[in-house]
């Protein structure tokens, strides 16, 4: 495989136009070609198809790195970069379980783009939308395959403990900002879209939603729900319920000057004041539990869930590490956000 790929890149691929992989159908054609190469090399070398696919991915990464090195460490983009997405599609199609190889592939993509939107946008918006949002089409067949691929890469990112630094902030794969969506995190884009199905996937894998106090997700949803005058959209309600499963309690955004104007003590229960004044209707409709907004103490069971999930997150063990815990199945489902 290594010799074949080296000759292919040097003799064949080098003669292709720089923009030869810009169109999706051309990338798919190359994927099909490499699929035949994988099967052929596996039989010739008496190896499994997955092993041959892993070797092809590593050869592709080596080619990409060499091209960058020859260009002073700067990616040439065009076909030289799009070949990484050929490797990405093959890794998913063959179910490559070599986390080191998949992690290296993700790292190369980030090094050149500083985002993973070509993995996330297709799962969030479907296959057509990315063309209008970012000018490219998803490499996966449909939205369902996009979602499966996202889960596949989320799993490997956790296994590889992948983290990325931008503007002195450290992001995990799941939280890397999406360039074409105003540099918002995938979770915040999903909340804005009100897609509870996608939000469930991201939260299970440990997506952060409360790091930026200026964009409180609970307040954002509650303000939108006010517009519907108690005819609440199912997806918005679903997003709210999921968020309340991963945060210990609602912390409303309170400008510091409010405390000064009212001369309130530092330990004043401002969350209780806000919810009674602005969101009492949601208490009446049982959309906000009284235990999550300062009216009553938070349930110990819920606090334990948040603490256990935090420890699992720190060790890159969400969500599959939950099922290694010596606790009843019902508690595993509770920890994995399937139950309230």
Can you walk through the features of this model?
The chain has a two-stranded antiparallel sheet. The chain has a domain at 1-112. It starts with a helix and ends in a 5-residue tail after the last helix. The protein contains 17 helices and two strands. The chain is mainly alpha-helical and 340 residues long. Helix content is 59%, strand content 2%. Strand 1 and strand 2 (169-172) form a beta hairpin. The protein has helices at residues 2-12, 24-45, 49-70, 79-93, 99-113, 117-125, 129-134, 143-159, 186-193, 196-204, 217-226, 234-246, 256-262, 270-278, 280-284, 300-314, 329-335; strands at 163-166, 169-172.
C-alpha geometry: elongated
Number of helices: 17
Note the beta-strand portion.
Answer: under 5%
The end-to-end span amounts to 51 Å
List unreliable stretches of 5+ residues.
none
Helix and strand succession? HHHHHHHHEEHHHHHHHHH
Overall mean pLDDT: 90
The total strand number stands at: 2
Radius of gyration: 23 Å
Largest sheet, in brief, is: 2 strands, antiparallel
Helicity level: 55-70%
């Amino acid at each position: 495989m290594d010799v074949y790929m080296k000759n292919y890149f040097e003799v064949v691929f080098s003669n292709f136009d720089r923009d030869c992989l810009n169109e999706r159908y051309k990338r798919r054609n190359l994927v099909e070609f490499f699929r035949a190469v994988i099967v052929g090399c596996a039989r010739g070398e008496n190896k499994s198809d997955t092993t041959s696919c892993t070797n092809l991915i590593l050869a592709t990464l080596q080619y990409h790195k060499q091209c960058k090195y020859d260009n002073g460490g700067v990616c040439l983009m065009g076909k030289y970069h799009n070949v990484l997405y050929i490797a990405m599609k093959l890794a998913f199609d063959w179910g490559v379980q070599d986390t080191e190889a998949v992690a290296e592939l993700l790292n190369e993509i980030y090094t050149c783009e500083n985002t993973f939107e070509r993995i996330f946008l297709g799962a969030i918006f479907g296959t057509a939308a990315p063309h209008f949002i970012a000018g490219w089409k998803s490499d996966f067949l449909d939205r369902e395959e996009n979602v499966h691929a996202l889960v596949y890469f989320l799993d490997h990112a956790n296994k590889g403990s992948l983290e990325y630094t931008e503007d002195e902030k450290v992001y995990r794969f799941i939280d890397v900002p999406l360039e074409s969506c105003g540099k918002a995190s995938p979770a915040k884009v999903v909340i804005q879209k009100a897609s509870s199905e996608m939000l469930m996937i991201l939260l299970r894998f440990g997506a952060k939603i409360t790091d930026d106090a200026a964009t409180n997700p609970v307040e954002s949803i509650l303000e939108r729900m006010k517009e519907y005058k108690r005819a609440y959209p199912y997806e918005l309600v679903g997003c709210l319920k999921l968020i309340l499963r991963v945060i210990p309690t609602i912390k409303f955004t309170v400008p510091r000057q409010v405390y000064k104007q009212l001369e309130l003590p530092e330990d004043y229960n401002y969350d209780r004041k806000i919810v009674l004044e602005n969101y009492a209707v949601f208490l009446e409709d049982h959309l906000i539990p009284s235990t999550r907004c300062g009216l009553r103490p938070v349930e110990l069971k819920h606090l334990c869930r948040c603490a256990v999930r935090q420890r699992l997150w720190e060790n890159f063990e969400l969500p599959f590490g939950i099922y290694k815990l010596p606790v009843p199945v019902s508690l595993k489902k509770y920890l994995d956000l399937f139950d309230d």
